[in-house]
Amino acid sequence: MDWSSNSYSLTTVAIVVGSIILALLGAFFGLLYRGIDRKLAAHMQGRIGPPIIQPFRDIRKLLAKESIIPDGGLSWLFQACPFICLVVSILLLTYIPVFGQRALLEGYGDLVLILYLLIIPSLALVVGGFASSSPFATVGAQREMVIMMSYEFPLAVAIIAIAWRISHVTDINPFIFSTVAQYPIWNQVGPVGVIGSLALLFTLLVVTPGEVAKVPFDIAEAETEIAGGLLVEYSGRNLALFYLADTIRAFVMVSLVVALFFPYNLSPVIGIGATAPAVIVDSLFFLLKVFLVMFISVILIRTAMARFKISQASYIYIIAMTLIGLVGLILIHVDMIV
Amino acid sequence: MKNEEMETTYTIPVGPIHPALKEPIRLDLKVDGERIVDVDVVVGQVHRGIEWLGMNRNNPIQNIYLAERVCGICNISHPFAYVMAVEHAAGISPPERAEYIRAITAEMERIHSHLLWAGVAAHEIGFESVFYLVWRVREKIMDLIEYVTGNRVTKAMFQIGGVRRDITEEQFPRIRKTLDYYKSIFDQLKTVFLDDRTIRMRAKNVGVLKREDALKLLAVGPTARASGVAKDVRQDQAYSAYADLDIKAVTPDILTGSIVGDVYDRIIVRLLEIKQSMEIIERCLEEMPPGAILAEPKMAKVLNTLKKAEGEGVGRHEAPRGEVIHYVRLEAGRETLATWKIRAPTYVNLMSIPTILKGGQIADVPIAFASIDPCISCTNRAMVVDRKTNEKSIMTYEELHQLCVEKTRRLSNGLVK
């Protein structure tokens, strides 16, 4: 399973097959987690909620429906955006370590690349929104751009702070996940640094609902305000692709948090040496970690809050979250001096 | 300058079908980015010709059930105002016990309507958990309404000269039990709506209607009271059992000491009114006098009286959304009403909408619009249709003014004669 340790031996075939497997796994678990999310949120709100497999049914239904393209819209761009969004979401999946394994394309790109790649699905949504030529989608696209620019900075601060700290303990490129996994942030810092790391973790947990467009940061879609905003004109297959990309993106984002802050594996701890059982144990452990992070940063937040206005959301990201991120950075620095 | 503005603004049509709206109405928002520059309210999508039916097809007693169907939420308020108007016109006075029962049902309706509104408001700002919570709490009052009147909606309680169902001594414990339940959770509701950070962020200083504007634009009900205009028909022109109860209009300064006139204040007013309604029901239960519930139990006899009666009457009731007015005119020898005019509270409250929305953000529209608790089916009472071409049109201010002048002239000529 160690695909990437000597990259020169990686054949194109292995990458292609691996990507397809990862895409399928990502889609499956993305939809599964969406189902769990909806079920748990429903129970927290005193409802029964849909069956856990509902997102799969949604996709099947959407794929069978007609894709309507608005008259005034830019047809090719309108149809290209869902594809771009999905493809980049899957691409992200190949750069992030999932299921307790190394990332498929490790060595071909690092955390900085991921920072840039994370923008593209949102950008595809924005372009698709503008291409719909609907006033609701236009407002949604404007809002998505604002929110994107707002959470980008705290996200970058959190990621760079961790890499910067790790760069002080090793000479290996700290922007690579295997380095982050080798030197987990919690093991490198003292008590002050732990507080700083918690601040960074908090920043990332708050950025996550913004990245995956959930209440209170679902401003670009805001059903009651702009009728679904960016997605208002999308239907059928195009909407299904966005839906799928959205679930994968949520899975990716949460996996990123897990990879940065909880890169631990269970198999060395309980002493499983054999490859196959270790992979199974680590995969299950990884899924559990993803569930916990998702529960806190998506499900809990979205059931406990009302939607923010765009000005309030960007204030929270640009001012409050960036400040918390910077405080975390400073605390980690102070920890090093002390 | 004007040309520049034309370039940067564009129009967003909210409605007639839009997730923020529970009923068809259109708000044409002229926006500049997220800021609202101008608002135009276009009504006319739910005209059902109810008044026409009442004047041409139904007799005055059948009209009670038609009046109930003016609005699904205020199906006590409309018949209440309607029967008061007919009673006024025909000189019938209902027995005192019936007045108390009317007041009890009307207050139950207020509790359920305000809770319904609270849920809708939470939904508008994307706070789904509170929406489900409040609507679950609301089920208790719906059960009670069903227990007392036999139906959750369209309760068919009213009759000209009284009510159709008595509230008996055996029913009191069940009613008190529900009221006690609401008392026990009232503080929780208050915490959820008044102390929650996100609700405060979305409601404070949003959709402000100043006291002067509320007076100028003739706002009624909680919308007016939240702006500090202490008007309430139950207080100002006490009718029915309310005359015995000495009701005070609820304004937000009771709780906060100041009046802003924003969405938050409207939440406060409605919350406090739920409490006030519970107190009113309790007092009504205590003080309800014994006796008949109908002035004349034989409906054929009532119909005969109404057929012979001549005159006009006005019924005013403080509905959950504000003052509802029904005007009727009876002509001797005519089976139907000669005139029936309904003026629902939303009709006047809609005038405040441009003032409330202007200068705000698009994100404020759902909650700010919902904060007047609009009821469009109540509002749509007239439509201009060309019989030949079937074309609908809107009358301008000048045309209406012209019609008004002509009518005054006709009337004054009649007087001179």
Task: Please provide a written account of the structure.
The complex is a heterodimer of chains A (338) and B (417). Chain A has 338 residues and is mainly alpha-helical. Chain A has one domain (7-337). Chain A is built from 13 helices and no strands. Chain A is globular and about 60 Å long. With 417 residues, chain B is an alpha+beta fold. Chain B has a single domain (50-379), classed as Cytochrome-c3 Hydrogenase, chain B (Orthogonal Bundle), CATH 1.10.645.10. Helices cover 52% and strands 12% of the residues of chain B. Chain B has helices spanning 2-8, 50-56, 60-68, 77-90, 96-124, 128-149, 172-195, 197-203, 211-216, 221-226, 233-236, 242-245, 253-256, 263-287, 299-308, 345-349, 353-357, 365-370, 376-379, 397-416, and strands at residues 10-14, 26-32, 35-42, 158-159, 162-163, 311-319, 322-330, 339-343, 384-385, 392-393. The longest helix of chain B is centred in the N-terminal third of the chain and has 29 residues, at 96-124. Chain B starts with a helix and ends with a helix. At the A-B interface, helix 5, helix 9 and helix 13 of A face strand 1, helix 5, helix 6 and helix 8 of B.
